[in-house]
Amino acid sequence: MNMRKTLKITKEMTISEVTRKYPKTIFVFLDYGLSCLGCPMAGPETIEQAAKLHCLDLKKFLKDLNKAGQI
Q1: 46 class by beta-carbon count within 10 Å (0-12 exposed, 13-18 middle, 19+ buried)
Q2: Hey, which of 1, 25, 35, 58 has its CA 20 to 30 A from 18?
Q3: Cβ atoms < 10 Å from Cβ of 3
């Protein structure tokens, strides 16, 4: 049975929440140029806010985060 998986990681989740639950996503953040994972502003920032701030394609960013989160 092939069921479509729902996204584990959503645009409303914070960076710290995502990296805590799915540590392998750290590499995705770094690949996208978000190297300030430890800075105070990154923790409460949502995935959507980070994408806007860094001019990222939100859909592609979420897809890549979710792919890494499944590994």
Answers
A1: middle
A2: 1
A3: 5
> What's the predicted TM-score (pTM) here?
0.84
Q: Which two tokens stand for residue 34?
A: 């978000």
Long-range Cβ contact pairs of 39-45 (< 8 A, separation 24 or more): 42/15, 42/16, 43/14, 43/15, 43/16, 44/14, 44/16, 45/14, 45/15
Running along the chain, 71 residues long, what does each successive block of 10 average in pLDDT?
Answer: 62 93 93 83 87 96 94 65
Residue indicated by tokens 């959507």 = 48
Dihedral sign computed on CA atoms, order 54, 58, 63, 69: positive
Which tokens sit at 38? Answer: 């430890």
